[in-house]
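Fold this sequence, please.
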Amino acid sequence: MAIKYYKPTTPGLRKTSVVVYSDLSKKPQGPRSKFLSKAKSGGRNQHGHITVRHIGGGAKKRIRLLDYKRTKFDIPAKVASIEYDPNRSAFIALLFYKNGAKDYIIAPAGVQVGDQVISSKGKVEIKPGFRTVIKNMPVGTIVHDVELAAGRGGQIVRGAGSYATITAVEGGYAILKLPSGEIRKIDENCMATIGQVSNVDHMNVRIGKAGRKRLMGIRPTVRGKAMNPVDHPHGGGEGKNPIGLKYPKTPWGKHALGVKTRKKNRLSNKFIIRRRK
C-alpha cells in the first residue's frame, strides 16, 4: 500500500497523509455472523468512574470477529477479499474454505485476492499466509500472529507491519526476536503464520489535524503544567514554568516516565532471554 500526501490547500491538509485503500474491497464481504456491535465505554468502568483518560466520541465501529486459532487443518482456503478493519492497524482477509466455512484472519503482507492459504500441523510451504507449528519452520523465517501457549490462538505480533524472526529451535523451545527487540523462548509446538503483517506503511501516516483524532475516539490531552496545583503536581506558577520536580509525575503523583511496571515474580520471566531496549 502507498501513502498519499495531500497538497496544503487548507491548514488541516497541510500535514495530512493517508494510506491508499484502492486495492481493498469497498464494502465488508463477510457473513453477518462475523460482525458484532459493542457500546462505547468512554473510558469508564462498571461504576461509571473514568479509569482511562482521553477516551470518548469517535465514529461508530462494528467489531470483526477474527479466527486467531485457524483450526481447520489441511483444508485449503481461498482469499476472497482484503478489507479495512476500523478496530486495528492491519488489514484483514476473508477466507473461503473448501468445506464452505468463511473466516476472517489478519491479512499478511503480499497476499492478494485469489491466493490460496492453508493451516496445518505438518510441514507447509514457506509462503505468506500459511500457518503451522514453529518447529516445522526453518531458522530465519519471519512470522506473525504467534501463540504463547499451544492451542490458545495468536496473541502477539499482530500490529500493522510487524513480524518476529525465528532465530533458533532447540530443547523443545523456539527462540524468537520480537518487534520490540525482546528475545524470548516459545514452545516449539505453538503455531504462527508465515510472513509480515499487512499495511506496512501504517507507521508513516501523519494524522494532520485534531478532528481526525476525535474520529478515532481520542479526546484532547491537557498538559499538567497548564493546570492548577490542585489538579496536577506540575501545575501552578506565574506564566510558563518548568515542572520543578526531580521527575515527571502523573496527576496522582506517581512516576510518569521510565518506570518499570512489570511484576518481578511474573511466571513468564523465565522465558525472556533479553528484555526489550
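The radius of gyration is 22 Å. Residues 3-203 form a domain with the OB fold (Dihydrolipoamide Acetyltransferase, E2P) fold (CATH 2.40.50.140).
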